[in-house]
Amino acid sequence: MTSVIQSIDYFAIAPPLALALTACVVLLLDAFLPRGPRVRGTLGLVTLAGVLAALALLVAQAVRGQTLATFCVPAPVACSYVVDHITLIFAGLALVAGVVVILLSMEELAGGEIPVGEWYFLLLCTLVGAITLPASRDLVMLVVALELVSLPVFVLTALRRYDGRASEAAVKLFLVSVVSTAIMLFGVSLMYGVSGTLHLAGLQQGLVGNPLAQTAVPSAALVLIIAGFAFKVAAVPFHSWAADVYEGASLPVAALLSVISKAAGFAGLILVLVVAQPLTSGIWVPLVAVIAALTMTVGNLLAMRQAHAVRLLAWSSVAQSGYILAPLGAGPDGAGAAVVYLVFYAAMNLGAFAVVMLVSRADSRLGGGTLQDYRGLIFRSPAAALALAFFLVCLAGLPPGLAGLFAKVAVFRELVDGGVAWLAIVMAINTVVGLYYYATWTAALFSPAPSGAPELPRARSAQVAVGVAIAVVATVVFSVSPQLVFDVGSLSALG
Amino acid sequence: MTTWTGWLTVALLVIPTLGAAGLFVLHKPTESALKAYGVIVSGAALLPAAALALTFDYGDAAAIQHELNAPWIPGLDLRFHLGVDGISLPLVVLTALLTFLCFVYLLGARAVGRRRELVFALLVLDIGMIGTFLALDLLLFFVFFEVVLIPMYFVIAIWGGPRRRAAAVKFILYTLLGSVVLLLGLLLIWSQTGTLDIVALAGAHGAGLPRGVQIVAFIAVGVGLAVKTPMWPLHTWLPDAHTEAPTVGSVLLAGVLLKMGTYGFARIAIPVLPDGAHAVAPWLGAFAVVGIVYGALACLAQRDLKRMIAYSSVGHMGFVLLGFATLTPVGINAALFGNIAHGLITGLLFFLAGAIKDRYGTADMSALGGGMLGRLPYLGSLLTFACIASLGLPGLAGFWGEMLALLGAFQPAPGLSRPLFLVFMAVGGLGTLLTAAYFLVMLSRVTHGSPGPLVPTDGTDVRKYEYSAWVPLVLLILLFGLWPKALLSITDPAVQTLLGAR
């Protein structure tokens, strides 16, 4: 006797639920509390508390250690929402990154030009999407979660009102995102058409009996879905929005785009390609390999030419997307290395954005400034300069930034093991190109400021400093004991 | 596996690390406090090196001693595996000694800007250099190999000469490109054998590695190491870096960093990939002898003293590589001997060039004019001594490495084309003549003759702190020149094992 009413495992969906409730509370508080600087701070703390609560619930799920599933249909049993190893990794990553982004936001919002309640509400909505997405196990849920990640970001970008660049960035992001969603939906509908199921677990089985499965339709559907996710992670040829949007958006949003939104894109990609595996890997692996090679090359070449800090970080994060994709270009087994790289990348990149935030607030210039502004930072704010140098060296993948080195080694190993030597060589060359601009920036930190330059104030902001500290601690821990990350990203666990 | 004396190797790394960390704690240290600090820390780091040399079992020099083996990152099979044998022990001691002498030299050097940062950079450099020679795990070797890059970059870029920025960028980009290729080669070995343990890999003598893979891996690893060594035609970063670097930077670059490349051949490339080495050896030999002749000809054309010494390194490293290319015990012993000799002699030469530059304000040979022996007799004599040692006069350390390398080429390993190596030997022999020529030309222009118009701004001859930095080097050059067995008896057993089954 099947019931029409689904039973819901509330423990499984507790983290996104907590975030959603906090979002509502924030919106209500904003409406009913009097305006003022103190309220801005209060709302930030409430948001932070909500995210920490969600993180605590996530830890509780992880400690319990069993796979939770809900929203299931009977016969054959398939669930739309599953909390397993991969969910926990991606959700944990998104929430920790979320904490840092909120800390950066508190500084950004202190100016009072941006409506606070809306900001935190939208931020929490994005986070709900980011932790729902890795748990999604059907195509519709996947698309909805991905949109939940993307839609609030347009508004967050545009919330820096009365700024032409922000509006332009928001429109660009909106158009690109809508087009990518459309493409992906088309792919999803084709996939549904040929397989007759929406559940990832049933895709492979669904394709077996269908005569259409022998045609090019499933491949076309998969390529379209890949293209949709490629937009989200800013992979070539869908990368061109990155620099303008990162530069136009306020820094916390750029950090969010480069880490949380990107992680969501990769989670979706891994779920569709590796976990569901509707088609044999022979079809998509070469495609992903080519995309990875192009992404890292184009990203690095563009980053090399940038004089603006945030634009440089934007293109460098495109290049890093290429490195994350690369192990998937060696086969489905590469997913572990991709996750490992993503975790390392998140810590390093967030840290870099946090320091840029700290520095750009200090000289009251919006958008992070040019690399020239970073000359002599070591004399003005030694701690900030050392932290930034460490993050850049990590992103470059050099000791003492061991986290980045081990991440790259993990990817190289996957490529050499998987027999895609050409991609390994492309990545090797790219690593050197990347070193060039990371090294240039790092060197600027330590060279004396040009004479006659205005004396810039020391960077001070408690919240941002805490954000930097979180990133530094994470990166140092990953450098000294990277095994932690290798454990969570281990292949067997991704099964 | 892990012996109780393993802590000695760890101490070699921990002391400079603590020293570097301690710099953060010091509050507004004075110039003289920092001078003393550097000497004390590097002196403390010299103690475990000395203890290592004293407790080393010379009867069993082929075996890995003072071993420490602990897992670090199981996910990458990376183990924290350290140890010394006859190949690495001399280099470890040389590194600790040269670092210490650099700090001694800095005691008296004129006011150095941002001395705290300089001390920090040199201590981090020390960690990387020592670690490279101690590491017995492919990835750990690579990590330490890379650790030296950033401090050296800053040493050149901050305390270097007028064109330091370009030289530093060139140095780091070149060596990084090499490192990435090296990493790919190491990962290829790993993916084929499933282990990163250098001891196990060397013990297998290439068993389980198909010949094609060995050749590819040897080329990748070899290119990576050859950039650092440097081997002609990958040497172009070296003249700029050595010329622009400050004195201590040049000393450590020439004295230790170049050795990391050649050490890699002896520790990884040749023992782990014997078939690959066999296939590539003729090419290695050819590039080596071209480097010898090219280095010597380039030296003849130089006007700047530091630049000339830099190019002479290309030639000397050519002899070291030729020694490796013969794949015979004689040749490889020669290479290891040449390594140490070059470290001592060129280290001394760069110290002297720095001292000359400090006194005259230039290192341009034609501007210096002649007559240094008349004006600064002690400095002039030391320069003469170092140059004669470098050109390979019998009785000084430079001789044995070159002579034995040529001897090795006379009778290369079975399977290698003997006529080809005889040609290499002949060309190498020509190179020794050219080497003698350029050093003698230089001496005749700088030390002999009547004093030129340029009067040194600082007319003091060799100072006390300079003596204390240079005399140990002079003594060691004499020791190894007169009693080469002191070094060969340590390296030979290890070399025999390394060539092992073949």
UniProtKB/TrEMBL annotation, chain A:
Primary location group: membrane
One GO process term, biological-process aspect: ATP synthesis coupled electron transport
**Domain NADH:quinone oxidoreductase/Mrp antiporter transmembrane: from-to ranges:** 136-432
Q: Which reaction does it catalyse?
A: a quinone + NADH + 5 H(+)(in) = a quinol + NAD(+) + 4 H(+)(out)
Cellular compartment(s): Cell membrane; Endomembrane system; Membrane
EC? 7.1.1.-
Ordered alphabetically, the record's keywords are: Cell membrane, Membrane, NAD, Quinone, Translocase, Transmembrane, Transmembrane helix, Transport
Q: Please list the GO terms describing molecular function.
A: NADH dehydrogenase (quinone) (non-electrogenic) activity; NADH dehydrogenase (ubiquinone) activity; quinone binding
**Which is one Gene Ontology cellular component term of this protein?**
endomembrane system
Known InterPro entries for this protein? Answer: NADH-Q_OxRdtase_suN/2 (IPR010096), ND/Mrp_TM (IPR001750)
Q: How does it sit in the membrane?
A: Multi-pass membrane protein
State the function annotated in the UniProt record. Answer: NDH-1 shuttles electrons from NADH, via FMN and iron-sulfur (Fe-S) centers, to quinones in the respiratory chain. The immediate electron acceptor for the enzyme in this species is believed to be a menaquinone. Couples the redox reaction to proton translocation (for every two electrons transferred, four hydrogen ions are translocated across the cytoplasmic membrane), and thus conserves the redox energy in a proton gradient.
The protein depicted here goes by the name NADH-quinone oxidoreductase subunit N
Q: Which organism is it from?
A: Sinosporangium siamense
Gene behind this chain? nuoN_1
From TrEMBL, chain B:
GO CC terms on record?
Answer: endomembrane system; membrane
- Pfam family example for this protein? Proton_antipo_M
Query: Which segments constitute the NADH:quinone oxidoreductase/Mrp antiporter transmembrane domain?
Result: 135-412
Q: Which InterPro entries match?
A: NADH_Q_OxRdtase_chainM/4 (IPR010227), NADH_UbQ_OxRdtase (IPR003918), ND/Mrp_TM (IPR001750)
Q: Which UniProt keywords apply?
A: Membrane, Transmembrane, Transmembrane helix
Coiled-coil region list: none
Q: Show the stretches that span the lipid bilayer.
A: 6-25, 37-56, 87-106, 118-136, 142-159, 171-191, 211-227, 248-270, 282-301, 308-328, 334-356, 376-400, 420-444, 465-483
GO biological process, alphabetically ordered? ATP synthesis coupled electron transport; electron transport coupled proton transport
Q: Which family does it belong to?
A: Belongs to the complex I subunit 4 family.
Q: Which NCBIfam families match?
A: NDH_I_M
This protein's name: NADH-quinone oxidoreductase subunit M
